[in-house]
C-alpha cells in the first residue's frame, strides 16, 4: 500500500473544496499511464474533465493510493504526452519540408492492451517490476481457439505459472497488463500483436503473423 500522503481528506472530497479539475489534474500528474488507461482517464485534460463524473474521479483517486500505481521516475505524464502529440500533429506539414535528418521528439508508447475485470482482486497488492507472480491463464486466438492453457484442476496436481515482472520472460502485454491487476483478480487481457508475438507470430502454437491474443488471467500471488 502506498505511503504517500493524500493531499485531500475524505471531508474535503465530500464537500466542494476539491473540484473535478483538481482531482483530474492530480491524477494526470501523479498516476501511472497504465492506471489512467485502466480508469479511462487518459486523453486531453479538458476532454476527460467534460466527460468524467465526480464520483468516478473520487473513486480513482482513492484507488490510486490503495494500489500505489503512481507514475514512476522517468515516465512521461499523460498530459505531456498529449501536448507532444498535439505539437507533432500541428507541425506535420512544415516538418515534411525540413531536412529528413531532423529528429522528432519521441513520444512514449500508448499501452497496447485492454483489460476487462472478470473478478475483483484485493485492490491493495499490485505487482511491480522485479516481483515474481504466480498466475493461472488460458490463451485464445481472436477466433476463440485456445492455443495454451494452465488452470487449476481438482483432478491433477498443477502449479500456476511463475515469472518475474519486467524480466522479458513473457510477452510484453503480460508484463504490462499484470501490473494493473491486484492479487485475486481475474481479468481478460486483449493484447495487440505488437505486445504479443508481432510480425513473426509463433508457428508452433498456431499464432499467425500480426495476430492479437486474448487471455483470461488470474493473479494468484506475488512473491
Automatic annotation (TrEMBL):
Protein name as annotated:
peptidylprolyl isomerase
Q: Tell me which PROSITE patterns the record gives.
A: FKBP_PPIASE (PS50059)
Gene3D superfamilies the UniProt entry points to = 1.10.720.80, 3.10.50.40
The record's EC number reads 5.2.1.8
Q: Which Pfam families match?
A: BTHB, FKBP_C
Q: Where is the PPIase FKBP-type domain?
A: 130-223
**Cited SUPFAM superfamilies:** FKBP-like
Q: Which CDD domains match?
A: BTHB_FKBP25
Give the Gene Ontology MF terms in alphabetical order: peptidyl-prolyl cis-trans isomerase activity
Catalysed reaction(s) here are: [protein]-peptidylproline (omega=180) = [protein]-peptidylproline (omega=0)
Give a yes or no for keyword Isomerase in this entry. Answer: yes
Q: Where is the composition biased (Basic and acidic residues)?
A: 75-86
The UniProt keywords, alphabetically, are: Isomerase, Phosphoprotein, Rotamase
Q: Where is this region: Disordered?
A: 75-107
Against PANTHER family, the record matches this protein to:
PEPTIDYL-PROLYL CIS-TRANS ISOMERASE FKBP3
What species was this sequence derived from?
Piptocephalis cylindrospora
